[in-house]
Amino acid sequence: MACIDFVGALHNRTKRDYVARVTAHDKAECSTIAKAYGHDYWDGERHHGYGGYRYDGRWLPIARAMAEHYGLEAGHRILDVCCGKGYLLHELTCAVPGVEVAGIDISQYAIDNAKEEVKPFLRVGDAASLPWADQSFDFVVSLGGLHNLPISRLFDGVREIERVGKGGRKYIMVESWRNERERMNLLYWQLTCESFHDVENWEWIYRQSGYRGDWGFIFFE
Length: 221
Description:
The chain is of the alpha/beta class. The chain has a single domain (8-218), classed as 3-Layer(aba) Sandwich (Rossmann fold). Helices cover 37% and strands 14% of the residues. It has 10 helices and 6 strands. The chain has a 6-stranded parallel sheet with strand order 3-2-1-4-5-6, with helices on both faces. β1 (77-81), α6 and β2 (100-105) form a beta-alpha-beta unit. The chain is globular, with a radius of gyration of 17 Å. The model has no long low-confidence stretch (mean pLDDT 97).
């Protein structure tokens, strides 16, 4: 188990006005709309979510880094939990031709509007109850999704990733903080976060869940 940063450089490219996130619009209403995980969240206005989540190749360097780190090869089976529109999975098929991919997300809209090349391998479902047998996948990844589970289901989500994956080839990334400034910035910025923990407590959750994979964080500096 190790803390690895695959996503930080991409995350930090975005400039954020944290105060405006709270004052420019009714934050409670925006959060309610975002948690429907429909068009408004993915492709609507920025204050409701992504502000338009379209394929632009940004995930390819991350896919290549993951493939190299975890030694992914043709024939390996890969699962993305909270896969969204499947962009990372598509890039993994480009980085390692011949891998088999699967993805699951709570959002019907995301699956319906997923990258065409991987859409047949994606399904709507619950991260806390994965519909696959034990050790079905050679690599399991979850980026920016598990923090949207309430604590009553979070442990199940982590355990499910551990259950369906093989060995230590697993990676979970969530939003977190290391100091009070980052904590406040995350509180201002987030729309869908239910499990709101600092780094130390996330690592405790992983240990308590019997998780044997790697993890990472994004911070709102």
